[in-house]
Design a protein that fits this description.
Blueprint: E1 11-15, H1 38-52, E2 56-60, H2 70-77, E3 82-87, E4 105-110, H3 118-128, E5 140-145, H4 154-163, E6 166-171, E7 174-175, E8 178-179, H5 183-192, H6 202-206, E9 216-217, E10 223-226, E11 232-233, E12 258-259, H7 275-278
Parallel strand pairs: 1-2, 1-10, 2-3, 3-4, 4-5, 5-6
Antiparallel strand pairs: 7-8, 9-12, 10-11
């Protein structure tokens, strides 16, 4: 769980839009859907706030900043929930930073060197880095897709970010829903990733040396992923929409963790129930 989050906070992933202003060679987005309005999203998040209190929303896409009414939506939701924006930083950051409080609005920046040179991206990242979540204290994260076409300079990029107190976090490549990196590329990811040797074994799940299959997971109970059409999955690895419609009056999360049926967990393994919580007499998930 990120260091900024209060224990017990309910989390959501949100695909706000599948539109994007970049054309990264490793990205194949679903068709752009008709966007839900700011008013519709606001009403839904008000209802969730009444049920679950202040939640942590990891807002992604596509590029969420090109959603029509993006700034208005952030301003409407942040009084109720914390937003963590997964973004390429191509928007006008001065419209929200520093006017929006850091405990209500965070920025998970993604660096795409095929679309923007590091000489242009890095100064903007430095300007807003106080809003980056501290998942690797004392450093703050910048995310990077581990595509073979751009991995040649990955160690160089990592060193450049390091000099400014940032840490480069390589994300495994996906081809459709399948892993897209070779074993050699995985070793390069391991050499750079700050997730190496962490207690939650994040990197081992990302690189498939550990599988989540059969393990109890709180995805669906304390976390869920909202698709662009409003239908909800346990996590990004599921596509059965078994949690229903986020815009429904009776939307709710599972009451308990459920066993994972997936072989690979590239992103959300933090929701697996730790073995230490299952061990011993009387232990409960």
């Amino acid at each position: 769980m990120p260091a900024d989050d209060a224990p017990g906070t309910v989390h959501f992933g949100l695909d706000l839009t599948y539109a994007c202003n970049y054309a990264c060679p490793y990205c194949a987005l679903p068709p752009v859907l008709k966007h839900r309005s700011v008013a519709e999203w606001t009403r839904a998040w008000e209802r969730v706030h009444r049920k679950y209190g202040r939640c942590y929303i990891y807002m992604s896409g596509g590029e969420p900043s090109i959603y029509p009414g993006f700034y208005e939506l952030i301003e409407a939701i942040t009084p109720m929930h914390t937003i963590d924006l997964c973004t390429n930083l191509s928007w006008d950051v001065d419209r929200l930073i520093p006017a929006t409080a850091q405990d209500r609005f965070k920025v998970s920046a993604t660096f795409h060197p095929t679309q923007v040179p590091i000489e242009e991206f890095l100064p903007k990242a430095i300007r807003v880095r106080d809003y980056f979540p501290q998942r690797f204290p004392p450093r703050r994260s910048v995310y990077f897709v581990a595509d073979p076409k751009q991995m040649g300079r990955m160690e160089e990029y990592s060193a450049m970010f390091e000099r400014d107190g940032l840490v480069l976090v390589p994300l495994p490549l996906m081809v459709g829903n399948a892993p897209g990196n070779t074993e050699e590329e995985n070793r390069s990811i391991e050499a750079v990733s700050p997730n190496k040797d962490t207690p939650d074994h994040k990197l081992e799940y990302q690189l498939r040396s550990l599988s989540p299959r059969g393990k109890l997971c709180r995805a669906g109970q304390r976390y869920a992923h909202i698709r662009g059409d409003g239908l909800v999955d346990r996590c990004t690895r599921y596509e059965d929409r078994q949690l229903g419609d986020f815009f429904s009056e009776d939307f709710e999360l599972f009451s308990e963790p459920k066993a994972c049926t997936q072989e690979w967990c590239p992103f959300e393994s933090q929701w697996l129930v730790p073995e230490r919580e299952l061990a011993g007499p009387g232990a409960r998930p």
